[in-house]
């Protein structure tokens, strides 16, 4: 059969192409872009939210952040509805084409039975043609054409044979391939317009769109931060490794996101020339006379003034500087996270020897960056009381929290007070204001922070040897602060450790005690990263107290040992003193003791099997958890946890945390800070670092810091008893074969498989 290619004259194949292309786009677009109606807010949930003035204003700001939201939603709905209507119309057209092409039956069209004679066919044709002829009032041209084609197919002998044999009056048709383009596209009269449209779409519009997207994407990192800003951070943190908190604020204000030349969203007003200088006069520690570039530029000074005003909670003009403050604060969480990442990279580069050890940033620098995040979210300086994070609470109210009977300085202490005492402290508040305080306090986080230490790839995971890879599993369990309400026993029932102020002070005091026993070092690198030398003060360090966050496995084993020792002591005490006359009785009871010993041995073997099966189950569970962690890394972590009460921050903020391990003695960072962004109820984080290169007892610190709340930071001491690494055998025992054994082995190899017994005896002789 012949083949021929033709353009779509009737339009059927073109409709097929348009129908499939439209369905391919319309179905996922409807699934993703159809505006979902928000569920009607639960009135009980609305009552549980804070109704303070700051939160009410914040909700209004969030609602008005996109004024064209309703118009965009309406446009999306209209576009999707139009697309579905077009899809239904095209589907109907295609169904009509299929019906006309696949339902040509001449007998059915003429209304005669199969096998009718020519006379019967002619009679039926003339009868129907008088009805459907186009010249008649009831005529229809399409129906008349079908009647004529059916009449010819049944009156012509050859056409009738072709129909009965091939199902087509014309006989076997040639295979044709239709191109799904209408013929007018290739007509000579329309060639100029078609080529012009092709050039406009594929040679102008598409390159411009791709180029614009590429230019914008290469300017930003994966965390929505300008690459130029990241280079700026690298420069300043490398220049000033030990950076104070106010210096960090200056670097943050110099970010290029706030410069009009790098960010078109920045708004510059003529009123800034009057309002910014007047604001600077109210900020005594702004350091606006700094001559260092770009810290002295106008945008940097203005941003710094807005940050200081925010931390001091100064009122600003709602039409000008207040809008600028909100714009600056929206960018700050991403920028602070980028600062933490930059400092961590500089520390890793210093450990790798890429930069000078004198440029190694101490742990204080990266912690100052972390401290800045909750300060900006809550609008408080670091030296302010964490109680000011509660609604309606001011400096004047704090005087009631300090008296001879009590000294309340943290949110946890305030939550443990009985309701009568807490109400008396806030005696100036109305019932509604006091209710807002309790609502906010009850939803604040209470983190149970514990650690587990092991060496995963070692045979004995509980023993840490020199140079081994130590895995610290940080276990975080989040509860609400309402669990502490009315709890007067602070030390026994509170499972968290407050370390924002007291924890760090105690840590510094402990460091001072350790420094009395250990010689001070001037090196900024951790001592175990240098050449290995045996510790001279080994006997002194072994007298240190046990770690607060000891791993669970070691505590279990030590408890078992203590129980066994106590049992043995009791057994020795209760054992009666044997007399000489009782020797016969002892001999008679020996057999029963042996039988009991056998039964106990069998029980012990059964217990060992059970424990081995439990250990195997634990290993399988750990492997399953590792697979889940790998899948989480590939799919990306969730960034939804719990909303933060922050009325001065203009957007919804989720609770995030940093956890890391550091050495307070050498002021160095051991692990990269892990940003926990999905702590809803429970989360486990694995931190890995290399153990010191020589044996001894070392004390490190596992830290947990909040990026949203002040006064929620915690730290646990990690005490490692590092053992000496086993010596690597120079020769394998299987390879150490004596000469006599080699000769004997050669003789055996030389013996044939078919040697007789006499020959074997001779060779043995």
UniProtKB/TrEMBL annotation:
A single cellular component GO annotation: Sec62/Sec63 complex
Bias-annotated ranges (Basic residues): 527-543
Biased composition (Polar residues): 552-567
Biological processes, Gene Ontology terms: post-translational protein targeting to endoplasmic reticulum membrane; SRP-dependent cotranslational protein targeting to membrane
Any one GO MF annotation of this record: protein transmembrane transporter activity
Compositional bias (Basic and acidic residues): 568-580, 596-613
Its membrane topology: Multi-pass membrane protein
Gene3D superfamilies, per the entry: 5' to 3' exonuclease, C-terminal subdomain, C2 domain, DnaJ domain, Sec63 N-terminal domain-like domain
InterPro entries per record: C2_domain_sf, DnaJ_domain, Ig_E-set, J_dom_sf, Sec63-dom
Pfam families given in the database record: DnaJ, Sec63
Alphabetically ordered keywords of this record: Chaperone, Endoplasmic reticulum, Membrane, Protein transport, Transmembrane, Transmembrane helix, Transport
Transport as UniProt keyword: yes
Annotated ranges, domain J: 105-167
UniProt biased composition (Acidic residues): 581-595, 754-765
Segments crossing the lipid bilayer: 14-34, 74-92, 192-215
UniProt keyword Transport present: yes
Record region (Disordered): 489-620, 727-765
Coarse class of the protein's main subcellular location: endoplasmic reticulum
Cellular localisation: Endoplasmic reticulum membrane
Matching PANTHER family: SEC63 DOMAIN-CONTAINING (PTHR24075), TRANSLOCATION PROTEIN SEC63 HOMOLOG (PTHR24075:SF0)
Protein name: J domain-containing protein
Source species of the chain: Polypedilum vanderplanki
């Amino acid at each position: 059969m012949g083949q021929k290619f033709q353009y779509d004259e009737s339009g059927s194949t073109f409709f097929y192409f348009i129908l499939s292309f439209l369905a391919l786009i319309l179905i996922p677009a409807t699934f993703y872009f159809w505006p979902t109606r928000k569920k009607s807010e639960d009135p009980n949930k609305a009552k549980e939210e804070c109704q303070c003035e700051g939160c009410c204003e914040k909700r209004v700001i969030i609602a008005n952040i996109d004024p064209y939201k309703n118009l965009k939603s309406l446009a999306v709905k209209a576009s999707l509805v139009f697309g579905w209507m077009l899809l239904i119309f095209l589907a109907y057209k295609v169904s009509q084409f299929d019906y006309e092409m696949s339902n040509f039956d001449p007998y059915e069209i003429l209304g005669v039975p199969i096998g009718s004679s020519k006379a019967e066919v002619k009679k039926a044709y003339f009868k129907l043609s008088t009805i459907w002829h186009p010249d008649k009032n009831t005529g229809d041209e399409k129906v008349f054409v079908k009647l004529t084609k059916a009449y010819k197919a049944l009156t012509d002998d050859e056409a009738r044979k072709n129909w009965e044999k091939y199902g087509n009056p014309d006989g076997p048709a040639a295979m044709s391939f239709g191109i799904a383009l209408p013929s007018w596209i290739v007509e000579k009269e329309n060639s100029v317009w078609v080529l012009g449209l092709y050039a406009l779409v594929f040679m102008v519009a598409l390159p411009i769109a791709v180029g614009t997207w590429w230019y914008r994407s290469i300017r930003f990192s994966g965390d929505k931060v300008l690459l130029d800003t990241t280079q700026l951070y690298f420069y300043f943190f490398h220049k000033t490794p030990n950076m104070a908190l106010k210096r960090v604020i200056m670097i943050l204000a110099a970010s290029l996101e706030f410069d009009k030349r790098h960010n078109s969203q920045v708004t510059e007003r003529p009123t800034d020339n009057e309002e910014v200088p007047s604001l600077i006069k109210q900020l005594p520690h702004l350091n606006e006379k700094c001559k260092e570039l770009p810290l002295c530029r106008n945008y940097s000074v203005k941003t710094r003034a807005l940050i200081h005003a925010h931390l001091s909670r100064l009122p600003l003009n709602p039409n000008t500087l207040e809008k600028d403050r909100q714009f600056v604060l929206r960018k700050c969480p991403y920028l602070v996270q980028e600062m933490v990442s930059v400092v961590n990279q500089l520390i890793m580069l210093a450990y790798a020897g890429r930069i000078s050890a004198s440029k190694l940033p101490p742990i204080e620098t990266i912690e100052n960056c972390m401290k800045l995040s909750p300060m900006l979210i809550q609008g408080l300086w670091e030296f302010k009381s964490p109680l000011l994070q509660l609604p309606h609470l001011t400096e004047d109210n704090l005087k009631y929290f300090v008296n001879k009977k009590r000294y309340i300085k943290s949110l946890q202490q305030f939550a443990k007070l009985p309701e009568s005492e807490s109400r008396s402290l806030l005696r100036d508040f109305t019932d509604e204001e006091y209710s807002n305080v309790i609502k906010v306090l009850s939803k604040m986080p209470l983190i149970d922070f514990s650690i587990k230490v092991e060496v995963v790839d070692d045979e004995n995971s509980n023993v840490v040897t020199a140079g081994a890879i130590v895995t610290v599993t940080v276990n975080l369990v989040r509860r609400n602060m309402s669990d502490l309400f009315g709890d007067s026993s602070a030390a026994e029932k509170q499972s968290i450790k407050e370390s924002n102020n007291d924890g760090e002070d105690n840590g510094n005091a402990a460091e001072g005690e350790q420094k009395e026993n250990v010689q001070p070092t001037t090196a900024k690198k951790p001592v175990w990263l240098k050449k290995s030398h045996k510790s001279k003060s080994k006997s002194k360090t072994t007298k240190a107290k046990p770690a607060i966050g000891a791993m669970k496995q070691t505590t279990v084993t030590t408890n078992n040992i203590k129980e066994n020792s106590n049992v043995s002591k009791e057994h020795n005490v209760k054992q009666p003193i044997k007399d000489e006359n009782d020797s016969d009785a002892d001999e008679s009871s020996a057999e029963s003791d042996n039988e009991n010993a056998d039964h106990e041995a069998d029980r012990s073997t059964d217990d060992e099997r059970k424990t081995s099966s439990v250990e195997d189950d634990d290993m399988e569970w750990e492997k399953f958890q590792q697979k889940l962690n790998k899948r989480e890394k590939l799919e990306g972590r969730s960034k939804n946890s719990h909303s933060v009460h922050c009325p001065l921050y203009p957007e919804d903020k989720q609770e995030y945390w940093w956890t890391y391990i550091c050495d307070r003695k050498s002021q160095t960072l051991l692990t990269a800070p892990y940003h926990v962004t999905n702590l809803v109820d429970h989360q486990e984080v694995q931190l890995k670092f290399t153990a010191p290169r020589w044996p001894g007892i070392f004390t490190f610190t596992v830290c947990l810091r909040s990026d949203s709340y002040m006064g929620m930071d915690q730290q646990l001491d990690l005490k490692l008893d590092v053992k000496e690494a086993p010596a690597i055998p120079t020769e394998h025992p299987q390879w150490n074969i004596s000469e006599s054994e080699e000769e004997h082995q050669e003789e055996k190899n030389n013996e044939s498989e078919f040697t007789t017994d006499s020959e074997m005896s001779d060779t043995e002789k």
